[in-house]
Amino acid sequence: MCLLIDEQWARLVPCLPPQCGKAGCPFADHRRIIERIIYRYRTGILWRDLPREVFGPWQTAWKRRHRWTAPDSETYKRRDVVERSFSLLKQWRGLATRDGKLVIVHRFAAVLAAITAWLRS
Fold first, then answer.
1. pTM for the complete prediction?
2. Closest to 33 in 3D by CA, of 2, 64, 5
């Protein structure tokens, strides 16, 4: 089953990682994997329902998609720092709205959260 025409594939190839896996266990063809993923999203089926006789084992497509879409550790760390900073800011905002509704309190909380995040990084 061919879901990508050659022009589409030619535009997609430079965006993919190199096709070399572990020693002794080379990766499956990227084009076949991409077509499995496209077929799965077009039809809306579960990963396990991919036709094995056409695409092979569903685990291969699922693992590759998971590997390609998972954030690297540095991106994950940066996102975690931002989420924790927003969480701290929300806590300060909650304190500010309980104790006094002055804008200066909110501004102080935002500045304090920014300083705290800067000191931790």
1. 0.53
2. 64
State the angle between helix axes of 73-99 and 103-120 in degrees (0 to 180), rounded to the nearest 10: 150
User: pLDDT of 53-95, one tens digit each?
Assistant: 887 888 888 888 887 777 666 666 666 676 776 676 666 555 5
pLDDT in tens, 15-36: 777 766 666 666 777 888 888 8
Question: Exposed (0-12), middle (13-18) or buried (19+): which is 105, by Cβ within 10 Å?
Answer: middle
Tokens for 106, please give them. Answer: 């909110």
23 DSSP assignment:
T
Count CA atoms within 13 Å of residue 47 on its CB side. Answer: 12
Hey, what are 42's tokens? 């077009």
- How is residue 66 written in tokens? 């998971």
Residue 24 near residue 52, CB atoms below 8 Å: no
Q: Residue for token digits 């800011």? A: 89
Q: Hey, is 102 helix, strand or coil? A: coil
Cβ atoms 55, 39 nearer than 8 A:
yes
